[in-house]
Amino acid sequence: MSEAPESSPATSRRTLLCGAAAVLAAGGTVAVTGCGSSAGSAGSSDKSGTAKGPVDLGPASAVPEGGGKVFREQKIVVTQPAAGEYKAFSAKCTHAGCIVDQVKNQQIQCPCHGSRFAIADGAVQDGPAPSPLPAYTVTVEGGNLKVTPS
């Protein structure tokens, strides 16, 4: 019996790993694409999932004075630095894009790498975030918070 001549070298380890990475990346994209949710609030969303028009976030009374509330689904955080003074910001950390998870000790806090932002203006108080949280327009209409992302 004769052996078949080698027509090409065996697949290299690098080629195999690159191919596996490409398959995993494509699979991850499909998995993430299926994870989207539809917000039950007014306003359409852009490709990043951030609402464009005014978003009704419910009663202003849900936001404590000297603190705030994260509206995770809408990617918005609303604070009340002083009685009746409401501020709204993107809930997406400017360091790595994680969604902030709480407002505590008068700071908006990111769970990923420890960035902290001021509730009054979104300024960085503790890094590694390189810039403040983007501010949004917030109004209170009929006792409800209406936020318009910029």
Task: Detail the topology: elements first, then pairings.
Elements: H1 13-33, E1 55-59, E2 67-71, E3 76-82, E4 85-90, E5 102-104, E6 107-109, E7 116-118, E8 124-126, E9 135-141, E10 144-148
Antiparallel strand pairs: 1-10, 2-3, 3-4, 4-9, 5-6, 6-7, 7-8, 9-10
Explain what the structure shows.
By secondary structure, this protein is of the alpha+beta class. Helix content is 14%, strand content 31%. The protein has one helix and ten strands, in the order αββββββββββ. It has a six-stranded antiparallel β-sheet, with no helix packed on it. A four-stranded antiparallel β-sheet has the order 5-6-7-8, with no helix packed on it. Strand 9 (135-141) and strand 10 form a beta hairpin. Residues 2-9 and 20-48 have low confidence and may be disordered.
Short summary:
The protein has 150 residues and is an alpha+beta fold. It is built from 1 helix and 10 strands.
